[in-house]
């Protein structure tokens, strides 16, 4: 309650200050400004596909497990932010690649840029590109100045891979870096006490240790090995080499100049963009030099995002709802970008349950977990939904801990081999600031009417009796977690406990552990949903919908955000990383302070 009041008051003060400042600056001009945005949105030119166009796939395109803003909404966002950032839902991206295969106006795909997508997403997109190439016979070209492993995982599907003569290829393996705060907390006098159920539940380790436990090293090594093996197998098969050859490069070279990458057979040609442009123009039938200047572009093209916006909508007498559960799981209501609120997602699930036009549901989970209570609230709604309609779960990059809990009641669970899942366990942290406060002259005096009235105080460490009491609550939640998974998977609780204990699994290992039913992506889950509902024709509708244009205008006019314009030097990057880790603590808002979440300071690169 104390934190709630603190953040509520701070938020209210910030809102009032911003509102008064806005009124002083704009007066009644806000209505005119809003009108301008709407007019701009209404006059946006609809993209078109010219004959002999190349579909350009910028790998930096943000492919998300959500319904992104589009149409007039994106124009408003660009106008207010001054940026051209655009996101694409995974379903839309896959649909666009599939449609391009049979579109006579599309002659091929050109990939460039660098991706930041998770490996689960990359596997699904790569499968769609492989299907495009196989079924259409149209070429895929890929060009870059830097190929990292993530980029190359996609680019390896191409018929021809280019690398700039001054470019490099990074093939040095995957690593996981875990940042530990225990030493700093101890130095500054911040006390940490731990509640935990599951010996692999390592999310608390950054606050209590200076290095990983043997259990954490074991599970992380196994996960990295699975991800790396998937990369080696896919890339070596595509390039007609061996996993051992690529492993040798990772062990002995790590970074390859362009000429060496070509000699190793990892790229086909070393060329500047103007040399590649000749082939792209031939692909678009622009062989006459007089045609080169008819377009503003170097060659006839359409971006993957624009192409997805002009596809004919799917029509069918029945609807399959794809419901996205993307981000941290928190206690609360409404929709928030990057967060799954217990109230917001529960409302969406209830609406799908009560909508007679929706015959089946695909729950797309891309979440490392979060609040234990919020996760169970959502899981209950999934359970109720599954009692009335087929619910097929599609796991994205992550579907772990609380993310796995909300998936468990589904009729079938699909995952990619690179999905990070499992982590069935519970933890809690109890921080106290007695030492650092006392050093600086701050003390507390607590007056209470019952022995446990100050059990949640930060003024002192918890007593053994208090910790024992709370550990009992954590154990109860863990038992409820096991029961929910046991019932959802129709397996004995004892068997679930053996593969639980907070342990993290790759998608392929999770299938062996009976936590996952099938290897497959979002489209596979949609097909399974149609089969379960016995549908011959169907349309896909994505939920939850983004805010309306009017809601965005109000939020943009009266909401404020702060950006940190630091240069990306190594020191600044570490400070920003630490800032993000500490900021994440604000999302840990479970009413009882217990969580079902992956280790949040682990970065896999």
Automatic annotation (TrEMBL):
Signal peptide: none
Localization per Swiss-Prot or TrEMBL: Cell inner membrane; Membrane
Pfam families referenced in this protein's UniProt entry, alphabetically: Peptidase_S49
Enzyme Commission identifier(s): 3.4.21.-
Stored InterPro entries: ClpP/crotonase-like_dom_sf (IPR029045), Pept_S49_pIV (IPR004634), Pept_S49_SppA (IPR004635), Peptidase_S49 (IPR002142), S49_SppA_67K_type_N (IPR047217), S49_SppA_C (IPR047272)
CDD domains found in the cross-reference section: S49_SppA_67K_type, S49_Sppa_N_C
Occurrences of domain Peptidase S49 (ranges): 135-285, 385-535
Protein's recorded name: Protease 4
Organism: Leptothoe kymatousa TAU-MAC 1615
């Amino acid at each position: 309650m104390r934190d709630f009041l603190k953040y509520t008051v701070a938020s209210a003060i910030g809102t009032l200050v911003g509102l008064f400042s806005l009124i002083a600056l704009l007066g009644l001009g806000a209505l005119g400004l809003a009108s301008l945005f709407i007019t701009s949105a209404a006059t946006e030119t609809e993209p078109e596909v010219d004959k002999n166009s190349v579909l350009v796939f910028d790998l930096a395109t943000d492919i998300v497990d959500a319904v992104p803003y589009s149409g007039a909404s994106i124009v408003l966002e660009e106008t207010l932010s001054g940026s051209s950032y655009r996101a694409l839902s995974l379903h839309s991206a896959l649909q666009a690649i599939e449609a391009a295969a049979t579109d006579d106006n599309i002659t091929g795909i050109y990939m460039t840029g660098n991706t930041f997508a998770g490996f689960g997403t990359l596997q699904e997109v790569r499968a769609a590109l492989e299907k495009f190439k196989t079924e259409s016979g149209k070429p895929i070209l890929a060009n870059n100045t830097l190929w990292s492993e993530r980029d190359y995982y996609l680019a390896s599907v191409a018929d021809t891979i280019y690398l700039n003569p001054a470019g490099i290829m990074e093939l040095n393996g995957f690593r996981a870096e875990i940042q530990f705060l225990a030493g700093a907390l101890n130095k500054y006098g911040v006390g940490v006490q731990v509640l935990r159920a599951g010996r692999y539940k390592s999310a608390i380790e950054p606050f209590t240790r200076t290095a990983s436990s043997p259990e954490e090293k074991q599970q992380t090594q196994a996960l990295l090995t699975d991800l790396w093996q998937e990369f080696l197998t896919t890339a070596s098969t595509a390039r007609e080499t061996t996993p051992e050859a690529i492993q040798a490069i990772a062990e002995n070279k790590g970074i390859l100049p362009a000429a060496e990458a070509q000699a190793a057979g990892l790229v086909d040609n070393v060329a500047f963009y103007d040399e590649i442009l000749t082939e792209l123009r031939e692909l678009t039938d622009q062989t006459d030099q007089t045609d080169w200047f008819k377009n503003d572009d170097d060659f006839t093209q359409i971006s993957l995002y624009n192409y997805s916006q002009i596809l004919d909508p799917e029509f069918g007498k029945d609807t399959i709802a794809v419901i996205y559960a993307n981000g941290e799981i928190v206690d609360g209501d409404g929709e928030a970008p990057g967060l799954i609120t217990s109230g917001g997602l529960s409302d969406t699930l209830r609406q799908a349950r009560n909508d007679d036009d929706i015959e089946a549901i695909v729950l797309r989970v891309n979440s490392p977990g979060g609040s234990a209570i919020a996760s169970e609230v959502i899981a209950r709604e999934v359970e109720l939904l599954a009692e009335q309609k087929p619910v097929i779960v599609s796991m994205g990059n992550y579907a772990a801990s609380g993310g796995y809990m909300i998936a468990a009641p589904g009729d079938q669970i699909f995952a990619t081999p690179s999905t990070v899942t499992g982590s069935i366990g519970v933890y809690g942290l109890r921080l106290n600031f007695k030492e650092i406060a006392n050093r600086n002259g701050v003390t507390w005096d607590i007056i209470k009417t019952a022995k446990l009235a100050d059990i949640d105080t930060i003024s002192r460490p918890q007593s053994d009796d208090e910790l024992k009491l709370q550990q009992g609550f954590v154990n109860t939640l863990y038992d409820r977690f096991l029961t929910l998974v046991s019932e959802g998977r129709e397996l004995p609780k004892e068997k679930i406990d053996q593969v639980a204990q907070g342990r993290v699994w790759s998608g392929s290992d999770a299938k062996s552990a009976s936590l996952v039913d099938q290897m497959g992506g979002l489209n596979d889950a949609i097909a399974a949903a149609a089969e379960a509902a016995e549908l011959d024709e169907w349309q896909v509708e994505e939920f939850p919908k983004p805010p309306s244009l009017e809601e965005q205008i109000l939020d943009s006019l009266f909401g404020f955000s702060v950006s940190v314009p630091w240069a990306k030097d190594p020191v600044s990057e570490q400070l920003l990383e630490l800032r993000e880790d500490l900021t994440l603590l604000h999302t840990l808002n479970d009413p009882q302070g217990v969580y079902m979440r992956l280790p949040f300071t682990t970065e896999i690169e």
